[in-house]
């Protein structure tokens, strides 16, 4: 048979020669195509980096806002507890002047009925616990369970305690002497 009749598969270059495209034009087009592909990849990578940076910035902004909200809530809470402490000091003072410890005990029971209030104690001027919502602490020395510096407060104060708890220290003043100190241990809601 004739060799010319048998069709041989042609290579890619042969096809290019058949359509009369020079090889260097093909190479230029290939380089341009590779260049466009690389530029697209670099552009996408740059966009992804910018997006991830923006996400980090937003996350940091949210974290800062949450910290600010917690600080504002803590300050508002502390102001409310101090106001409560001042009013409570007058109620306890009145009951102490009348020597009515049962009334103070009822106050303590009502206060510790709140799930955020852990403990309420009344300490006399010598440092002995007169009343406590936890009966095991009654008649014990205050300094055996708590720091003595808490009894030195001259104004209603909030001090940090153990395990995320706070201590509301309320000095009870008589006309010319200190009658005692109330301490309420609570956790933030």
Give your account of this protein's structure:
It is a single chain. By secondary structure, the protein is of the alpha+beta class. The protein has a domain at 85-187: Beta-Lactamase (2-Layer Sandwich). It contains three helices and five strands, in the order αααβββββ. It has helices spanning 12-18, 23-97, 101-112, and strands spanning 117-124, 129-132, 157-160, 165-173, 178-187. Strands 2-1-5-4-3 form a five-stranded antiparallel sheet, covered by helices on one side. A hairpin with a 4-residue loop joins β4 (165-173) and β5. The termini are far apart.
Q: What are its keywords?
A:
single chain, Beta-Lactamase, 50% helix, 3 helices, 189 residues, alpha+beta, five-stranded antiparallel beta sheet
Helix-strand blueprint:
Layout: H1 12-18, H2 23-97, H3 101-112, E1 117-124, E2 129-132, E3 157-160, E4 165-173, E5 178-187
Antiparallel strand pairs: 1-2, 1-5, 3-4, 4-5
CATH class identity of one domain:
Alpha Beta
Shape: rod-shaped
Distance between the termini: 98 Å
Beta-strand percentage range: 15-25%
The CATH topology assignment of one domain is Beta-Lactamase
Class of secondary structure makeup: alpha+beta
Low-confidence stretches: none
> On the 0-100 scale, what is the average pLDDT?
85
The fourth-level CATH homologous superfamily of one domain is PAS domain
Q: What is the architecture of one domain at the second tier of CATH?
A: 2-Layer Sandwich
Give the helices and strands as they follow along the chain. Answer: HHHEEEEE
Strand order of the largest sheet: 2-1-5-4-3
DSSP, total strands: 5
Helix content class: 40-55%
| Count of alpha and pi helical runs | 3
Largest sheet: 5 strands, antiparallel
Radius of gyration over alpha carbons? 40 Å
